Amino acid sequence: MNIKDICREFRKLKGKTIVGLTGAPASGKSAVLDRFGKLGAFCVSTDALAKEVLTSRAGYNRISKSFSSGVFLKDGSIDRNKLAKEVFSDKSKRKRLERILHPLILGRALALIEKSNEKLIIVEVPLLFEAGLEKCFALTVCVETPGKLRLRRAAARGWSSGELKRRSAAQFTAGKKAALADVLISNDGSLKDLWKRVDWLHGFLKNRPEKK
Fold first, then answer.
1. 80-88 and 161-169 helices, crossing angle to 10°
2. What is the pLDDT of residues 177-191, one digit of tens each?
3. Domain ranges, ordered by start, for the chain
4. What is the CATH number of domain 3-206?
5. Which single residue of 13, 78, 94, 159 could bond 154 by disulfide (Cβ 3.0 to 4.6 Å)?
6. Which tens digit of pLDDT belongs to each residue from 8-30?
7. If we measure between CA atoms, which residue out of 116, 146, 121, 123 comes closest to residue 45?
């Protein structure tokens, strides 16, 4: 299935509120997703699924046909760091990789959601708007974090300022993501402050009436 078909299948699922979660690099998306999970929501990380897809037969075969031998290790496996460097420095290659990965990742996400008995589903998608995936979801949520704070958090995870800039340049600006989202979660304080905001949003989403 292509992305449009998969999004259509997302919207067909009855009795579930499926929410797309996004934000700029180092904004705190994973922390928000983790909190939703602790509150009982069924959570899906497309970053985690991307790692699975890269080692799947379908993903490997398509990448091997579309990229040079420079992105592979001596044992033939994909070197994720080299692949990331190549696609982040070349927009056409990045788009090529996205065309390969996005349908496979969304297909896996859909299969997981279909098996879940939870009514509230949170799907973390870094490139939600860039890939035109907003139609997959009943609601989109963006984690909004000041640039200086994102820089500090990126450094804490071992990224240089150049790495953060490189990753950010491959996405919409933080402001554009925020403007496109239905709901914003501000992550400008402590983790405890963030949890309180996620807790409130969780309660709102749990009690949100289902559209007929």
1. 60
2. 999 999 999 999 999
3. 3-206
4. 3.40.50.300
5. 159
6. 899 889 899 999 999 999 999 99
7. 123
Query: To which H or E segment does residue 196 belong?
Result: helix 191-206
Which of 109, 133, 128, 135 has its CA nearest to residue 171? 128
Q: Determine phi and psi for 89, rounding to 5 degrees.
A: -100, 0
Give the Cβ contact number of residue 157 at 10 Å: 10
3-state secondary structure (DSSP) of residue 61: helix
CA–CA dist 64, 1 (Å, integer): 21
Is residue 67 within 8 A of residue 33, CB to CB? The reply is no
- By the 8 A CB rule, do 20 and 132 touch? no
* First-to-final CA distance of the chain: 26
Residue 173 and residue 29 in contact, taking contact as beta carbons nearer than 8 Å:
no
Q: Please answer whether residues 25 and 120 qualify as being in contact, where contact means their C-beta atoms are separated by less than 8 angstroms.
A: no
User: What's this model's pTM, rounded to 2 decimal places?
Assistant: 0.89
CB 10 within 8 A of CB 137: yes
**Residue 105 identity (one-letter amino acid):** I
